[in-house]
């Protein structure tokens, strides 16, 4: 049984330019869901057409209940809901390759739609071993630790540099070119579906030819999180292995990216709880 993993985010998808398209309960969210679902169906079909028996789809934006499940084919399985372990890469174990759809640039990237790294509400900057870390980088390195290569990435053109640096073997398909944080241009869905199919085909060809690798990083892993407000860092410092390095920033050391990932997720959830409690 040959399985593929597909992680789907929203900010890097075409036509997504408004906060309402990204938020549950907002009328525009239905538009965002339709865009995400249509492209997910196209990507799943393309992956299956290239010889994968099953496709594990991880709905990976916000509450992670965005993709309409009714039209998923019988060979697709959908991971939904948050919080969950390993967040955007839950369910990847046992897959031979990973595909990313709708991925966006990391926080602080110029001309990138809704640039952020895991939590725009709490994180100002995220670094791994001193390198600025986007969600793409964190997820790619975490999957590398369990032997899964990321072979295909589709998203905001502003993410291309990260892909070329951390997964140069992967096929990158731009779904949009951002003019700034709140505007972009994209081809039609029809054209993008063709691009996805061609990109997946090329990605699988490269993997079959032995050109794909698993990403890695030096260990132990040093993680630095610079929060938006000092209160989030204060609470994070309660953990004995967390070191406060400035009013808003903390750092910690992990033996693996997977361990670092779970700690980062926990600290983000705690910061979000503090935000709700204090209003900041």
From TrEMBL:
Query: Which organism was this protein described from?
Result: Fervidicoccus fontis
- Its domain of life? Archaea
Which InterPro entries does the protein's record reference? DppA_N, Peptidase_M55, Peptidase_M55_sf
SUPFAM superfamilies in the cross-refs: Dipeptide transport protein
Q: Which Gene3D superfamilies match?
A: Dipeptide transport protein
Identify one Pfam family in the record. Peptidase_M55
Protein name per Swiss-Prot or TrEMBL: M55 family metallopeptidase
